[in-house]
Amino acid sequence: MSDVQVNPREPSATRGRKPRKNNPEKTREDILKAAIQEFVQQGLAGARVDAIAERMATSKRMIYYYFGSKEQLYVECLRKLYGDIRKTEHDLDLESLPPVQAIRRLVEFTFDHHDRNVDFVRMVSTENIHYGEYVKQTPHIREMSSMVLEILGRAVARGVEEGVFRPGIEVIDLHMLMSSFCFYRISNRHTFGELFQIELSNEQIKQRQKDMICDVVMRYMQA
User: Fold this and answer.
1) In 10 A of CB 73, how many CB atoms?
2) CA–CA gap between residue 220 and residue 183 (Å, rounded)
3) What is the pTM (predicted TM-score) of this model?
4) Using an 8 Å Cβ cutoff, are 174 and 156 in contact?
5) The dihedral sign for the CA sequence 71, 45, 142, 26
6) For a tag site, which of 22, 64, 110, 150 has the least CB within 10 Å?
7) Distance between CA 45 and CA 61 in Å, rounded?
């Protein structure tokens, strides 16, 4: 016979949940991780707060306490995902590398990040379905994203000054060039893979394509 005493007044949905220590930052982070999975799988319209609560064995009340609404939770998920990539770009310390190595390192990072972070690609695709409505409401994401253009711009300027890059390169176009291929091969991997019978997760194919996009960018920029 079990020694566990069940409080008959306690709602059945809360029974069996692990006690949660009072660590607001950890709780907030856990909610975001669970919410990202829900938004990735169901989209914004289909995602349900009670499903997110069930994923992390907590209550809807707790989620609303931290985030206020499903839409605000979605915005915070976008902020986290964009923040993660921008922070890592900043940590690459491209300023310490020669211009050619700096650009190649950024292209390699962009390729690897998209390949390893499918959730980021799915969330960005979802936001584009909504015409960027929630990104428009979040100036902080735009401010974070401007950092990569500044880093890229300084590397390009150094390369032009040293004579290894041609003048007249638009930094925003360069960023779009390197990002678009890396994004597309993840966002369209199922349809592209099926139509052309190619396994994009194959390590040899990934390395070949990473080398290709690096070469494309470098040849576009070379003096």
Assistant:
1) 24
2) 19
3) 0.84
4) yes
5) positive
6) 22
7) 20
**pLDDT tens-digit map of 69-78:** 999 999 999 9
Is the distance from CB of 80 to CB of 32 less than 8 angstroms? Answer: yes
Matching residue, tokens 């609404």: 69
In the structure encoding, which two tokens stand for residue 130, read together? 């909504």
Q: Which of 41, 68, 95 is the last residue of a domain?
A: 68
Q: Is the dihedral of CA 113, 119, 125, 128 positive or negative?
A: negative
* CA dist., res. 223 & res. 220, Å (int): 9
- Do residues 152 and 119 share a domain? yes
Nearest Cα to 153, choosing from 136, 174, 137, 133?
A: 174
Question: What is the C-alpha to C-alpha distance for residues 48 and 56, in angstroms, rounded to an integer?
Answer: 13
- Residue written as token pair 């999975």: 37
- Quickly count: other Cβ atoms within 10 Å of residue 134's Cβ: 19
Can you give the pLDDT at residue 24? 86
Domain span including residue 113:
74-221
Q: What is the CATH number of the domain that holds 24?
A: 1.10.10.60
Q: Number of H helices and number of E strands within the chain?
A: 11, 0
Single-letter amino acid, residue 88: T
Last residue of a domain, one of 47, 68, 89: 68
Same domain, 52 and 87: no
| pLDDT level of residue 13 (50, 70, 90 thresholds) | very low
* 133-142 tens-digit pLDDT: 999 988 989 8
Q: What's residue 12's pLDDT? A: 45
